[in-house]
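Data's thin. Show one?
=====
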Amino acid sequence: MIRPLRLTTRFSSLALRRCYSVQPPNPIRTNTIQSLHEKYLKGIPITVSTAHDYITSQWVHDSNCDAILVGDSLAMTALGYDSTTDISFNEFKYHIQSVCRAQGPSMVMVDMPFGSFESSIQMGIANAIDIMKLSSNVASVKVETGPHTKDTYTIGFIKELCSRGIPVVGHCGLTPQRSHSLGGFKVQGNKRIEDITVLCETAKKLEEAGCWAILLECVPHKVANYITSNISIPVIGIGAGPGCSGQVLVIADMLGMTQKSLPRFVKQYGQLHSNAQDALKEYMKEVQESTFPNKEMHTFKIKEDLWKSFLDDVNKNNNANNPN
């Protein structure tokens, strides 16, 4: 009788080690709408930062921030425009692609800039699809909407997006794209009962339209608390106080990348503009004093025999060309 071959324990473990000795790297686990909603349900504040290019995006990823917002605020903070409405759609898409080249866990959501959806529902849907197709890293679009009593179009547009499976963050309160109709960059819902009521109703209608989250900008913290408590989706605040489900800040403001005046609600966590100025001045000083580059630290060497051979060749050529 032929007995079946049995592997010894020692041989089996050795074979397994050989088979699995090369392991693929662990993939980066990216945050999703679902994972952010789970944090919301647990009462864990959601952290969001804007980013406007590959470098700032990688900073946000490396900090393990929950989400990145590619906001049209980059028109003013990174490109020098006077308003968020000045940037073209094509120019904005260039920045989306740059942000999405960075790799990390932060979920990416993207503004629909002014002019990308106002002309018609169909044009807006096509542009939203265009944004989502720029990169598989884009998880959601964000749409600014005015008070529902005046801006019935945008609520309807958001419904159309959500009905097509395009995730949407609704943005209400201070909406920079509509700053002219709002009388400038001013706190919203702080003057009349009617304004507070309409703001609360607008937030509720965004939820009913299918938004998975709301960005609430520049409103009194009590109003923001009330809205957060009366809807069942995350409320990301900016200038809306600590009672929201999470917070977002513009990275250029947060890190002190410019010397522009800042809104009241911004806290600076860095002074990159000052640090950069100091570094550049030190660089200029060392160049002018000939202390940079340092020959031992910052240059490349060549073997002496090779260099000697090169000089000998130069001398021979010079002598051949100048026999006298």
In short: Confidence is low (pLDDT under 50) at residues 1-24. Residues 304-321 form the longest helix (18 residues). Strands lie at 46-50, 67-70, 107-111, 138-144, 168-173, 213-217, 235-238, 246-249. The chain has two domains: 33-272, 277-321.
